[in-house]
Each structure stands twice: as C-alpha cells, then as structure tokens.
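pinging the channel bc i need a second pair of eyes. not urgent but kinda urgent?? the chain im working w is below, pasted from the shared doc
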Amino acid sequence: MDKEQEKMMGSLDAQLDYIREADDLRQLNSFLTRVMANQRIQALIKGDNLSLACDAVVDLGQIDDGDDAENRLIAAAALGRLSAVARGRDGVVFARIGELFEEKPLSVEDLADGDEKYYAALTVSALKAPWLGEYCNEQSVAIDTAEKARRLLLGTALREAGSLSDYWQQSLPALDALRAIPNDDTRYKRIRRITSAASEEVRKWEGDVGSDAGLALADWFAALLQTSKKDAAEDTLVDIFDDALAMLLRIIELRFSYALLAPTYVMLERARTSFGRDVWSEILRQSKNLPKVRTALKEAALVLARQNTQDKELMQVLCTAYHSRAQVMPAITAHFADARDLNQETRAWWEQGGKVAESQRAAEHRVGNSEDQQIGSLLINVEDSKSVMEKLERAVVPFLEISDPPLAETVKKAAGSYTEIALAARQLATMRKLRHMNLKGEVLRYNPLEQDMLGGHQLGISRVRVERDGIQKEFGGKIKVLVKPRVSPAE
C-alpha cells in the first residue's frame, strides 16, 4: 500500500473520500483488502457506504484501458470480497453485476491467488445469465488448485442444471480440456480434485435426481477416465473411483427405488473396462465406498426376492461389484440368512448367482422366457391382425369373387384359419389367466424395466406413449408383466 493509502486509514471520512476519488481499480481493490485485514471494514460499509464502495468498484471495472476484460474480473473479486463481509447484504453488493458481465468473463484461473479466484467465483455465481452453467463447468475444470473456488463453481453449475442427471450431462463438454494436460500424473491429480469437489457438492444436493441418473453418472465418469492412465498413481485412481461411488450412493439416498434398477450401477462396468483387470482388482481391494454399494445391491436383491422376482441384469452388476459370481454367492447367502419369508426357488436363484438346476427351472419360467410369454406374444399379434383380416374378408373377397373366384376361395380359407387361430390363442390365454394391460395409446412415465423402447433405450426420456399393449398374469396374488408394452417417446 502506498503512502497515500496509509494516510487514508486513520479517518472514516478520509477513507470514504478515497473511495469517491479512486481512479484505479487495482489500487482501490488493494485499499479495500487492507481495510478488511485491519478489521475496519464494518464501519466503512455501514449503511449507504456499502453502495458507495460497490458503485466505485463497478464503475472502475467498466473503464476500457486496454485491459477491460481483466478489470471486470478484478472488479468481480472485489465485490465478492465485500459480499463476504457485508453480512446478508448481497443484494446491495451484487445490484449492478449485470453491467460487468453481459457475456462470459475471462477465466478465474487468470487471477493471482486462490482467494481472488474464490471471491470472483462468488460474484459470478450471483449472476443471472444463460451462459452461467456452461462457464462454471468450464472453470471448475480449468482451475488448478483453488479448491474453494472450484467447489463454489461446481455447486453453481449443479444449481443451474436443476438435477444431478442434467448436471453430469451438461458438464461433459468441459471435460475435454483435460486432454491438454500432457502428464498422466498431473492430469489425474486434477481429475481427483474435480471429483472430490463434485462429490462434496452432490452429497449436499437435496433437489431432483433427474432421469437416468446412473447412466449420466457413468458417462461423466467414463469421460474423466478416457485418457491414458499409465503414469497415474494408483491411490489417485482409487480416490477418483471412491468419489464417483459417493455420488452413486447419493442417487440411492435421494431415490431408493433407483437402487433396484441395474442401469443405476452402470459406472461399475465402465470403471472395470477403463481401469483394466489388474488395476480394477487393486481398486476393489482398496475402495472405501464399494462395501456400501455392495450392501445397497444386496438389499436391492432382497427386496426383489421378496417380490418373487429374479433380475439377471442386477445379478450381473453384483458379479462386477464382487469381481466374480463365486464371490457373490456366499455374500447373498449371508445377506438372505434371516429372510425366512422368501420363496425357496427364488432364494435359490439369487443364492446360486442366477444359476439354477433343472428341477428349479419352474421359477425361471414364471419370470423369464416361458410358455406363457409365448402365448402372450401370440395373443398380441393375433389382436393386432384382427382389423386387417376383417377388412380383407369384408372388402377384398367380394372383389375377388368377381375377378378371380379361385383366389377368393383361398382368401376365405385364410380368413377362416385366422379366426380359428385367434380363438385358440384367446382360449389358451384364458386358461393360463393371461390378461391385456389395456395401456395402448396411454402416456406413461418411462420405466425401462417394465417397458420396451422402440429402437432401443434412450437417455433423457421421461414420458412415453404405449404403441403396443403388454400382457400380465397373476402369480400368488402378485401381478407380473410377461410381455412388456412397447413404447415410443411422447415428448
């Protein structure tokens, strides 16, 4: 601080005069920082004096002296510092920040130290701008070691996204910048700091999870690990994996029903593929959060078993989490030990890792590719063909009787055969107590476990229209879907 500033420190009036007459943003920022360090700032910003100081910062920040963009970023840091001591008067401090940033600011990484970066991020987070989420995602990756600023930016990006799923999807483009870091160890230490900050913000999140959150997390995690890991430290990779698992657990905490869906855990398979066999084995041994995920999986298996349900996809996830089916079997057996209410055939399926003896195939038939499913599929096809066959007999046969009588007889016989097949299909369905779900044409919430998406599963779909009805049957007082309805996006 120069002698003029030192002179101004003694009197409040002199301090206010200095602020009014300031013509250099950097000197004003230095002066305010010094006042804060001397614990005299509360008197200086009392009442309308806070507006005076903030107006001076904003006005100087807009002076175009060749470093206009940098000045605006320094002004943001000064305002952020003032907001930190203004005790709930952020509305006054940030009243004019829209004048500073009509478009994206420079990178906060250009500022001198971690505190400046944090205070600039604090100001930016108060903006209302269409580019805010994108900017925060970019800066959370660009920052090297200013962790307070990174967490604030990540929290702002999450707030702007509105859900965990949207946050992970929207932050994907920013991760491409990591490719520019040539050294593996340096790059993965940066990634470790990013996942640590993201994990902390996600664990605090109380809002919406979003659709396909597990798949979105898996895509985000895979994007982080897409570069070479040859020289990355193993303990760094373990920490990155544990941070991702903490976010996976947060999904389950916020929406426990997601624990029952195999797609929630897709990141486990992505991690195994990305790390490779040797590193994956070591990560399974060292991970602190994997035991919690395994417990969630075993509990999900128990819930499904109590519903007399077998889930091959969830079993495959268990095998990934435990490294092998041989390790899954004793773990499930121990977890099911006190569950005396389970159907014995269903219990055996889970405890044997999804493999059952021939004598136990009846349970698999009830929920798998059974005769009932085939009858149900036949019934749906017959019903779908009904209107076509009726039109054929009503409209085409009379025409053929005039132009081609032999062909007319053939068509009549075909129509008659269809009627017999349709009657037999309906009788079989009645005997097996199969029923239509009566959903065709309805718009429903998308559930990939209970519906088949035409063209395959798609991310980001929440509402679907039923294009083909499904077939269901009652098993022991519980309704099971044998043939899933086929759906298409309704949005």
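so The mean pLDDT is 87. and Residues 371-403 form the longest helix (33 residues). — does that match what u expected or am i reading it wrong
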